[in-house]
Amino acid sequence: MTAAPAVAATTRIALVSFPGIRAFDASVITEVWGVDRTDRGVPPFELRRTAAATTPIPLRGGLSLTPDRTLSWLARADLIVVPGLDDHVTPAPEPVLEALRRAHSRGTPIAALCGGAFTLAQAGLLDGRRAVTHWNLTELLRTRHPGITVVPDALFVHDDNLWTSAGTAAGIDLCLHLVRTAHGAETAATIARSMVTAPFRTGTQAQFIEHPTPHTDRDADTLADVRAFALTHLAEPHTVAELADRAGMSPRSFARHFQATTGTTPLRWLITQRIAAAQKLLERTDLPLPEVARRTGFGSEITMRQHFATHLATSPRDYRLAFHRTPPGTGVDTPAPHP
Fold first, then answer.
1. For residue range 148-183, what is the model confidence (pLDDT) as tens digits?
2. What is this structure's pTM?
3. Are 114 and 131 in contact (CB under 8 A)?
4. How far is CA 155 from the centre of its chain?
5. Which residue in 263, 274, 264 sits closest to 308, CA to CA?
6. CA-to-CA separations, 73 to 48, 67, 175, 184, in angstroms, rounded
7. pLDDT in tens, 23-49
8. Strand partners of residue 16
9. How many CB atoms lie within 10 A of CB 103?
10. Among the four 101, 152, 200, 241, which has the fewest Cβ within 10 Å?
C-alpha cells in the first residue's frame, strides 16, 4: 500500500455519530483530536461531535454521547472520522449516508475505524475501491458488498481520499497516521506518548499476529534485542543474513519468526524505521539532506527520496518545508524510533 497525505492542515475534525457506534472508537477519536496539547507543541484541533440532531445518542455499556453540531458542520471539516459499529449489519441513518456522500464529493478525507467500513460501504463510497476492516469481519464485508476489494491483512488502507482500518488498536494507528501525514512525525509521537501507545505502525503491517508459545516467547526476546541493535546502529547497512546471524538463526527461520512476531518482514520494518528517523531529523534539525540520509542508513539522498515518494507521497525537502520546527543552526540529534 502506498501511503498518501490526508490534508495539509487537518485542524477541524468531525466525529460522525449515530445510534450503534462503538464507544471505544469514539473515545479514540476524542483522545487523539479532542485533548488540548498545545503546551507540548501540538496544533490546536477543533473536534466536533456531529449527528443528525444534537440530542444524546445512547452507546453500549450505559454510556451516551451528546453531539455539539449537526451534520451540516461536515462542510467545514478538514477530516471526517466514522467510528466502528456494535452491529455491523444495521443500516446507518440515511441522513448520515447522504452527508458522507456529499463530503466525499467535496473532496473531504473520510476515515472509518474498524467496522466503520460498513457505513462507508452502505453509502456506496467503497464500491470499486480497496478497504479493510477487522479480520473477523473481512468475509462479511466481502459478501455483503462484493463491489469492494477487501484487503484481508493490513492495519489500514487508503483509496481515493477514503481511509479504512482494521479492528480496535488499528483505529489508533490510523488516527495517529493521519496526524503524522498532516502535522509531522513529532506531533504524532507527542500524542502517542501521552496516550502511552506505540507511535509508528505502518498500514501494511499484519493486523493479526498469533499469540506466541513459550518457545517463541524466547525467540521474541531475541528478536527484540536484534531490533534494538538495528535501531541503535541505524546508519549502518543491515542484511537479513547479518541480523539472522546476530539472532543465532538461519535467514529463513529468522525471517519467519520476525514476520510472526511483528507482522512484517525484516527489510520492510527496517525501511519504516529509517523513514521515521529521517522524518524526525528533518523536523528537528537543519542537517543537510545527504547527512540525514547517511545517519538514517539510506546511504544516499536519492535512495531516501525514493522511499519518501513511495511511502509518504512526498520528498524529504518538501517534508522539511512542511514540518520543520527547529531554528536553523541547532543540528539537534533525534532519539531512536520505537522498536
1. 999 988 889 999 999 999 987 889 999 999 999 899
2. 0.74
3. no
4. 8
5. 274
6. 8, 11, 20, 26
7. 999 999 999 999 999 999 999 999 999
8. 50
9. 23
10. 241
